[in-house]
Amino acid sequence: MTKRMMVALAVAASAAVVQPSGTTGTVTVAAAGQYQRGTGGGWADRMIEQAFQDALRRSPDEFELRRYRVRVHEDHWNADDIRNDLRDRRDYQSHNDRTTRDRGSYDVDRTIRTAYQDILGRTPDPEGLRDYRRKMVDEGWTERQLRDALRRSDEHRTNPSASADRIINRAYQDILGRAPDASGLSSYRNQITNHGWDEHDVRDALMNSPEYRQKGSGAMTQDKAREIVRRAYLSVLGREPDPASEPFVQRVLRDHWTEREVARELRNSDEYRNRQ
Question: Residue 239 carries which DSSP code?
């Protein structure tokens, strides 16, 4: 084999591919193929599929696959992270599946109006409001199904970036108290239109951003840090924290850890694994 042929093979074996986030990195051809469902599924897609079956009793659609591929490959999520995210998301819960306490405060019409404003930029017409109310109340549609139906409409397809910008602007105002900069607007618009992100994902990313942490760090107290840790213990381990939780309190205070980061660490504990 000539030196030129050897170089060509080496280049092919370490070809640069575009990651789901849009950044470029050097990945082996075999690993790159695992990003695509059509090449045997890939370990990440199989894990996402199983998590959806466990949590929702259905398969993910293509937008959902894109979103969770990013979480798996860039944020190192495992199947438990995906399952917990699905179970915690309000937009995946149907009106009929909510607890009695939640049902009392759940306003179907308000959910429909909000979805219309986010996706179509207008209030629902009487016929649309009536039709989607019936689907959510009588057929148990989730907020996710409602939003997906609006995204598939001809009205939305004419300008999909407009709904993305509305979602991003509202999230920035609510969480950071400002309008998005050009870079942030472009980045999150790309995540929404190309990687299946929705408002939940944008808000989650902003709440884990350095800007948000720095903004809230001055107001963080020992009591607030303990409450963050307590919520993580209750959601992951189903119990109150014990004295061994003190290092987590310090991480919240010193390193601005969020509840999500505490919960992720708890899911790596022996106690959590033994409960499975």
Answer: S
